[in-house]
Amino acid sequence: MNVYEARPAGGSNHPIFLVVSEIWGVHEYIKDCTRRFAKEGWHAVAPELFQREGDVKAIPNVQDVLKIVLAVPREQMLGDVAATIDWAKTRSNVRKGRVGVTGWCWGGSSTIHITAANPDIKSAVAWYGPPARPYKGKSGDVTGVDVAKDIKVPFLGLFGALDQNPKPEDAQKFGEMVKAAGNQNVEIVVYPDAPHGFHADYRPSYRAAAAQDAWKRCDDWLKKHLA
User: Residue 183 and residue 125: Cα distance in Å, rounded?
Assistant: First the structure.
């Protein structure tokens, strides 16, 4: 599996930061964000989680891409993420005991599952990932709602009020579910004039003010809970 890696220019003991892509895989936007995280001091790694199924970046039809993405088994995704983290721990100048995760859209939904399932994760930031998105598991579909009770580490969710998948009320409800299970270190932020994909600066959905504020919140969250 290919992994795009960006590390700080100097220093050592950098926390590992897993960057999970949207449905289009590790394209230039994801690579750019990965480099930006490295400049903030994180050893950032972005795995190609659809590599077995083909190069989704080269498929023009979004419905064809979704057929691939939605067929990826939950266990496969979680296993590939665990392998990515294990590999990252072998890299030089990393802090093996501090691992965080972030992702956008499908990657945001996956961040929920990864945070609930992987004991290496110490902090998480999910960007507009629908909690109710089903992932195909061995015993049937599993959603983020199903695993909300298993999120025990600091969790930040960044959402848009104009989004319909997830709707803002569903995002808020998910945060309340995590809190109800005993994790009070949860924050759900909903930007009033932002649609789905408001951080994606290569798409019409981009909203500069929300994107910049959300990036700062993400960075502050990591510096507080992962550094």
Answer: 15
